[in-house]
Each structure stands twice: as structure tokens, then as C-alpha cells.
Amino acid sequence: MTPDLTDYAWALAEMEARAAAIREGTASELVWLLEHPPVITGGTSATEGELLEPGRFPVHRAGRGGRYTYHGPGQRVGYVLLDLEARGRDVRRYVASLEDWLIGALGRLGVSARKAPGRIGIWTDDLAGREAKIGAIGVRVRRWVTLHGFALNLDPDLTHFDAIVPCGIAEYPVTSLAALRRDPSPERLDDALAAGFPQFLQSLDQRVIHA
After folding, report:
1. How confident is residue 1, by pLDDT bands cut at 50, 70 and 90?
2. pTM over 0.70
3. Which residue has the higher pLDDT, 98 or 46?
4. pLDDT at position 168, please?
5. In the 3-class helix/strand/coil scheme, how is the chain assigned residue by residue?
């Protein structure tokens, strides 16, 4: 395996252990940014009919919400482990703040991204003017600690998404920073995420204050 790629099953086990330690008060909160080798992960709503090429890539049941998602080289995956017990115990608000954080980061990279009513994920317009998905979100909350998080497409092989119906949505294409002719370097995305992270946390804390 390429040294810069993190095995999915190993990362899942590490994330689960860290979340348990956060709940027990023996570890701090964490945002973990990485890339995986090609893998398909299935959320709790995934159905076999949406796995179009079952033997193409390894398939893992992830335990998060959502349906099938592809992870692979050229895609930035973020595992966000926060203690919602200290931040208002509001999962919907957490997800909305997470979406806003990602949209803001993409905006810093010159991509006008948005939410789409009734459709999970982060959306933009591709160069042909079609609405396209550039980011996926899938979260789980256990004992008020968040697990899993998001995936943003830097420069993955977009044909790999043909192996599934991404997040159960077949009507729209998938795009990436590279396909939009934007700089796909992970360092630039990481910097953009870091720039918006204090505001992301502040939005959660403010919602606690005003609850």
C-alpha cells in the first residue's frame, strides 16, 4: 500500500478507540485528515442494489449513517471526533455546521459550493453547468461523541464512483477540484479547513449558549 494512504479497516478501529477515550475523558477531541486506498463503505441505509460492481473494490460496512460511498486516492477524508455533550447535544445543528465549514473551505479555494434541499452532501456546478456532488457527509454519534465525517474530492479517478450509486443519488454526476480546474493539492485544502475551523467550533458553542 502507498505510504501516504491509510488502510480503512485500521483507521476505523483507531477512530472507534479514540471516540471511546474521548467519552471516558482520557483523550482530546480530534479532526483526522487522510486518504484511503480504493474502498467502498456502506452506511446503515446502504442497499445491495446500489452496489453496481460488487467485486471491483473492497467493501466495508462502516456503521455511520448514509448509503454507499467511495473513498480512494485523491480524496480528502476527514474524521471529526467531537464531544457533543459539551456542545449542546444537537446532532442536526452539528451536521449543519459541518456542512457550512466544508462549504466555506471550498469557497476559499474558489469553488462556489452549497447544500441541496433533500440531498445529503456538498454540491456545486461542474464545467458543463450541471449540478454535481463534490463532497460526501456521513456521521455517527455514540454516547454524544461524533464519529466519521466527510470526504471531499480533490483529484480522484471519477470513474471509480461508477461502482456504486453514490449516496443513493443516481441523477447527478460527481466532480472534483481538479475537474473544476482548481488546485487539488491536499495541503491547500487542509489550510482552508484550518482557517475555518475556529468558526466551525464557535458556531457549535454559540448554539449551546443560545439554546
Report:
1. very low
2. yes
3. 98
4. 67
5. CCCCCCCHHHHHHHHHHHHHHHHHCCCCCEEEEECCCCEEEECCCCCHHHECCCCCCCEEECCCCCCEEEECCCEEEEEEECEHHHCCCCHHHHHHHHHHHHHHHHHHCCCCCEEECCEEEEEEECCCCCEEEEEEEEEEEECCEEEEEEEEECCCCHHHHHHECHHHCCCCCECCCCCCCCCCCHHHHHHHHHHHHHHHHHHHHHHHHCC
Nearby residues of 49 by Cβ (< 8 Å), 6 or more positions away: none
Nearest to 137 by CA among 149, 155, 119: 149
Residues with catalytic function:
167
The amino acid present at 86, given as its one-letter code, is A
Q: How far is 147 from 166, CA to CA, in rounded Å?
A: 20
